[in-house]
Amino acid sequence: MELESAQRRHRDHSLIMIHPGPQATLLRPFRLRPGQILLVVLVMAAIIMQIAWSFLATRAHEIERATVFAEEADATAMTFVQRESFNTLLLLERWATGEVSARDVQIARANLGQRLGVRVSSGAVTADIVQEEYRQTLTALDEHLLRLGDVTDADRRAFRGAIADDVESFLGETRALSRVFQALTREQVTEVLEDRAEAERLQALLGGLILVLGMALAVWLARDISDSYRVSRARLAEERDQLEQLRRRFTAVQLIGQAATGWREQAERVAHGDELFDRIRADLDRYVPDLAITIEPDAAVPVTVIPRDEGHHDPDDIAYVTGRVTDAVQAWISRERARAALEHERVHDALTGLPNRLRLPELIDECGRRHAYVGLAVLDIDRFTDLNSAFGEAAGDRVLCALAEAITPSEPHPHGALRLASDDFAIVIGGATEDDVRWRLSEVIKRLPPAVSVERGIAPLSVSVGVAIVPPTPTVSIDAILARSLAALQVSRASVARNSVVVFDETQHSDLLVSVTEEAEFREAVVSGDVYVVLQPIVNLRTGRPVGMEALARWRRGDTVVTPDRFLPIVSRAGLFTEFSTAVSNSALRAWRQVASTWSDAAGGDPPYISINVHPSQLETSQFVDWMSALAREHDVPTESIVCEITEDAVVNATGVLDVLTALRGEGFRIAVDDFGTGYSSLGQAISLPLDILKIDRSFISSLDLSDSAGGLFRDLVGIGRTLGAVLVAEGVESAEVAVKLSELGVDCAQGFHFARPMPVDDVIGWFDAQQGRSVAM
Known about the structure:
Elements: H1 2-14, H2 34-96, H3 102-116, H4 126-129, H5 132-145, H6 156-162, H7 164-220, H8 222-267, H9 273-287, E1 291-295, E2 303-307, H10 315-346, H11 360-370, E3 373-381, H12 384-391, H13 393-407, E4 415-421, E5 424-431, H14 434-446, E6 451-454, E7 457-460, E8 463-470, H15 478-493, E9 500-503, H16 506-528, E10 531-540, E11 546-557, E12 560-562, H17 564-574, H18 577-598, E13 609-613, H19 623-634, E14 642-647, H20 648-653, H21 657-666, E15 670-676, H22 683-688, E16 693-696, H23 698-702, H24 712-724, E17 727-731, H25 736-744, E18 749-751, H26 761-771
Parallel strand pairs: 8-9, 11-13, 13-14, 14-15, 15-16, 16-17, 17-18
Antiparallel strand pairs: 1-2, 3-5, 3-8, 4-5, 6-7, 10-11, 10-18, 11-12
C-alpha cells in the first residue's frame, strides 16, 4: 500500500506543471558611469563566483540527495519487512478465529520472504540488515506456519495458544526493526546536514559581498529600479494568477483521489450502479466542473471524460480523472458480473442447465399472469436406478441431459422446464382452458426420445408423469399444486404403460394427496432435525445398574410428538428408510457420545450400550455392514457398544440375513432379536443365527402370572434364551412385583416405565447419575 501511495503521489504531482506566462516588458536602457561600470563588474564577478559555487554546491547536493534517497530506500525496505511481518501476524490471528485459511497465512509469509530478499543500495539483501534475533524468531515461527494446514478448525485456537510465546517473540523483534531503520536514517540526515551547512556558510559570505556591492550599486540605480518596479509588479500579478490555477489543480487532484477511495468502497456495496454513477458525477461537478463525464457500463469503453469548453486542458489531468472513474466503474461491473454468475448457479442445475426447484414459484407465477390455467407436470424417469446400474452414472447423466433437452422450450414463453431433483423434472405449462394445457403437455411428451445412445449401448427412456391443472387463484398455493402433481405421479408410476400421464382428480386422488402431504412433511422433518431419538434405559435386574439404552425415534410435528407406530407407514410408503435410518442412527450415536463423555468407572464400568432398531430391508444388502461400521468410526463409538435390534420377521422373511448378521458380529456389533416370541421363528432358526440378546415382548410380561406357577410358554422362552447363551431382556415392565418375578424366572435385564420412560439424552444422563449405587427393588 505504501508503494502504491508513493506512486499515486508522484503521478498526482506530475500533473502540476507550470506553464510560462507572457514575456515581461524589457526595462528602458540607460547609460552607466565609469564608477557604476566598476561596481557592475565587481558585482558581476561576485555573482559569477556565487553562481559557480552554487553550481558546484548544487552538484554536491544532488549527489548527497541521491545518496540519501538510496539510503532511504534501504530504510524503506526495512519498513516493508516490518509491515509484511505485522501482516503475517495479523492473518495468523484471523486464521485462529476461522476468518482466513492456512493458505492465506502462508501467502503472507511468502510475501515477507520476498521483502527479506530485496537487495539494497549497499549490495546486501534486506535479510542481512535485520537483527539476528529477528531472523531466529522468524525461523521459529516458520516451523509453526508450515503445520497450519494440518490443524483442524476446532483446534485452531488451541494451536494459536500453544505457539503464543514464539508469536510474541517475533512480534517484539518486528517492533524492534523500527530502531534499525531509524538509526540508519538519523546517521544519513546528520551527515547531509553537516555538508549542507558548510556549503551555506560559503554561500553566505559570497552573498554578503554581493549584498554590499549591490547596495552601492542600488543607490546609483534607484531611478532605474523605480522604472522597472512597475513592470515587475505586472509580472508578479500574472505569476500569482498562474500559481492560483496550479493550486486549484493540485487541490482538485487531491479531492478526486480521496473521492475515488469512496467510489471504490461504494462499488463493493451498492446493488444498483446508478447510485454510484450519480455520486461520481456529483463529485466531479464539484471538483472539476470544466470536465464532462459519460458513464456507460455496457459499452466497450465505459467511461469518457471531455472538456466542457475549448479552453486549455492538460491531457494528463483528463487521463487522471478518467483512470480514477474507470477504476470504480470497473470494480462495480466486475462485482455485478460475479453476483449475476453466482445467482445463476444458485437457481440452475449444473448438469442440465435447467432452472432448479428454487425457480418453480417464479415460473408458476409468471405462467399465471399470462394464462387462465396453469399446469404443473412432474416427470420421473422410469427405473432410473436400474439404468444407472446397468449403463453407469455417465450414461445416466446423458439420459438426464437428453430429457432436459427434449422438454426445454424452443420458443419464448410457451412453457417452463425445471429439474427438481435426481431424475425428477417439472414442466410448467399455461393455457386458456384445461384441454389447452393437456394438449400442450402432450406435444412436449411427444418430443421425448424413446431411447438414448450411450457408451455401452442404447438406454431406454420413458417417464411417469403426474399433472395438476388449476386456475391461478390465491387459494391454491404453489405447495398445493406441487403436492397434487406428486400425488398424480404416484398413480402414474403404478402404470405399466410407457410415458404414462395422470392428471390429478380431486374426487379420485384426495386420499393420496393427504399421503403425499404427510410424506413431504416427514421428508422435511428428517432434513430439519424434527425426527430425533429419545432413550429408554435397560437395567440389570440383579444389580439394578443400567447396562444399555434403546434409541426410540420420534417425529416433532408442530406442537405434537408422533410415535413410530403412526409415522413408520409413511416412511415405508415414501421409500424413506435410508434417510430415516441415517438420521436416527446418527442421532443415537451422538447421544451415546454424550452419555459416554459423562460416564465414569465409578458409575459401573463401561458406558451402557446403545440399541438401534434395524429395518428388515436394510439386512438385504451387505453394504449395511460397511455403512454401520463407517457410522461407528465417524462418531468414535466402539462397535461393541452398539446393538442392532432386528425383528423375528426379518429373521424369517429376509434373504441373506445370516451372512449380514455374521458380518456384523465380525465387526464387533452385537445382535438382538426384538419382540421375541411373537413371530414365527423356531428354535432351529434361532440357533443358526449369531444372537447376543433376546428381548421378550411386552405381551408376555403384561399377562405374566405373578403366582408361583408361571406360564409354561414364558418358561420356554427363557429356556430358549439359556440354550442360545443369550442375554434375556424383558420389555414393558411397569411394576416392582413384575421385576422381582422376572428375576426369579431367570430374566437378566428389563426396560419399562417401572424403571424409566423414554427421555431426551440430557434427562437420561441425569437419571444415570441418580441411579449410581442403587439397585432395583426386589
